[in-house]
Amino acid sequence: MATLHDLADLIFKDVTLTIEDLEKKFPPRNLAKDAMVTRFAPSPTGFLHTGSLFTSLVSYTLAKQSNGVFYTRLEDTDTKREIAGSGANLIKQLEFFGINPDEGYLSDDKEVGNYGPYKQSLRADIYKVVIKHLLLIGRAYPCFCNQEELAELRAYQEAHKIIPGYYGQYAKCRNLTVDEQIALIKAGKPYIIRFKSLGDHNNKIKVHDEIRGDLELTENDQDIVILKSDGLPTYHFAHLVDDHFMHTTHITRGEEWLSSLPIHIDLFNACNFPLPKYAHLPVIMKEENGNRRKLSKRKDKEAAVSFFIEEGYPKYAVIEYLLTLANSNYEMWREENLDKPYTDFILSFNKMSLDGALFDLEKIANIAKERLALKKAKEVEEELKAWAFNYDKPFYQKIVANEDFITAILNIDREKAKPRKDYAKYSDIYPLIKFFYNDEFAKLQELGYEWDETKDKKEIIDILTYYKDNYTLANDESCWFEDLKAICPKFNYAANTKDYKKNKEAYKGHVGDIASYLRIALTTHKNSPNLYSILAILGKDEVIRRLDLAIKDLNN
Ligand code: GLU
After folding, report:
1. How far is the CA of 237 from the centre of ligand 1 (A)?
2. Ligand 1 atom at minimal distance to the Cα of residue 40
3. Which of 54, 59, 235 to mutate to test the pocket of ligand 1 (most atoms within 8 A of CB)?
4. Can you give the pLDDT of all 556 residues of the chain as single tens digits?
5. Is 472 left (phi over 0), alpha (psi -120 to 50) or beta?
6. Nearest-atom index, ligand 1, CA of 252
7. How far, in Å, CA of 90 to CA of 95, rounded?
């Protein structure tokens, strides 16, 4: 009679290492007792989801603040779903947001760390050691069922309203004798390897989740596939082996994995590996017509992290927004610590909400406006330049052609008690300031000046002509405004709006109207940033040129 040894040797002829060898090869990390080892373990199936950025941020922050390790691992065992090149791209986007792994997979030809390879498809030999062990202790077995047999089983279970799956009495191949198994393998019958669960779905298991507390879940009894016919393990099995040998202390992942937790616990126990701690993070939701649903790849542009990068949301605004979703006390901390970097905030599991976090694009925009407004113009200029280099080349060319010019523009109404807050993202900037550039100004002129049609054109021409002929620019804003007021009586305009409002018939307009004529002459728009700053930045020659152009336009 053949033994499990014979079976294990037949299936894994080349596997000579044992679990003990692996334990020696990947010894415990030399870290302080409370240091957390966390990971981000994406599958290379496309783009970085905003939810993944969120879980990575939490995982990374927890590792950093405990002097632990945050690493990346590419879970690429599902080769059918793989999109070539997407693995490296995911990591690049993560790093873009300042989430720099201490070790792990960085790209298909770059990884760092002593616990690798960090790409699952390169770890087949490691998984086989553990599977061989499970075979030897009778906790794994070859399954010869083909697709039709499995489909039949499913149909039968559905028809009889039985819990679906390959388990217990329905797990046909778990009852084969070793002799039968060996004979079938030798006869060349295709097979995969399944885990042999000893669980029962009538039982409950107790599990502790760092966020959710003590949970009672249904015990696993499914004999899940652990080794596929392509020689690679399934996700459930691979992640467990990796988290064990890479010494993950906390598995921090989306709550969509909570339902598979009993399988993972069953596997950990069968392998006799200590359980790591678990924290299932809330999934990011979206409200639509009063209903909540998961942020969806297909429907929501903000589900892809690339959206924020391309639109030019400042990365710190996106991160700070995600921190507000992660911990309810973040906003208060931020208000009290305006000058501190967000990395000073201490993240904790017990301040994490249990409900799905509701995604709010407008809130990111508000955070971005607040944060951008507090920066020095030069800093904003550097950020803008880096963004424009990738996403707005024509603007980039303009920026580098005259950096002092754009810095002066960005400095308008900045470094004041109430700085202006009109930019939420870098892509907001150009449309608001492009009139400063002469080529753009010419295009705006083509589109037409926004003159106030209720005012007499001749009067506007006279005022602009007078302003041009007497042009000087006081070197502070309030003196300049006094000068502007001084013009008013010459044209029967009120020097202040209060007087005008009291006695509208007595005047043709007020000082605000004169400012408005100037504004339209210089920008073509009724609304613009601070007029005094515009005059100062354009400089006398350009101001005179634009006033001439405006007068010409009014004369037509
Ligand atoms: N590879 C899994 C995913 O794509 C990782 C889940 C986990 O963190 O355990 O989401």
Report:
1. 12
2. 8
3. 235
4. 899 999 999 999 999 999 999 999 999 999 999 999 999 999 998 889 999 999 999 999 999 999 999 999 999 998 888 898 899 999 999 999 999 999 999 999 999 999 999 999 999 999 999 999 999 999 999 999 999 999 999 999 999 999 999 999 999 999 999 999 999 999 999 999 999 999 999 999 999 999 999 999 999 999 999 999 999 999 999 999 999 999 999 999 999 999 999 999 999 999 999 999 999 999 899 888 888 888 888 889 999 999 999 999 999 999 999 999 999 999 999 999 988 999 999 999 999 987 768 899 999 999 999 999 999 999 999 999 999 999 999 999 999 999 999 999 999 999 888 899 989 999 999 999 999 999 999 999 999 999 999 889 999 999 999 999 999 999 899 999 999 999 999 999 999 999 999 999 999 999 999 999 999 999 999 999 999 999 999 999 999 999 999 999 999 8
5. beta
6. 8
7. 9
Task: Give me 278's structure tokens.
Answer: 């678990």
Question: What tokens were used for 165?
Answer: 């799956």
Q: Which amino acid is at 341?
A: P
> Domains of the chain (ranges plus CATH)?
4-16+124-281 (3.40.50.620), 375-436 (no CATH), 444-555 (1.10.10.350)
Q: What is the DSSP letter of 222?
A: B
CB 41 near ligand 1, within 6 Å: yes
CA distance 262 to 248: 18
Minimum CA distance residue for ligand 1 atom 5 = 41
Strand partners, 305: none
Ligand 1: does its nearest atom lie under 6 Å from the Cβ of 253? yes
Q: Is 250 in the pocket of ligand 1 (CB under 6 A)?
A: no
Residue 264: CB within 6 Å of ligand 1?
no
Pocket test for ligand 1, best of 58, 60, 239 (most atoms within 8 A of CB): 239
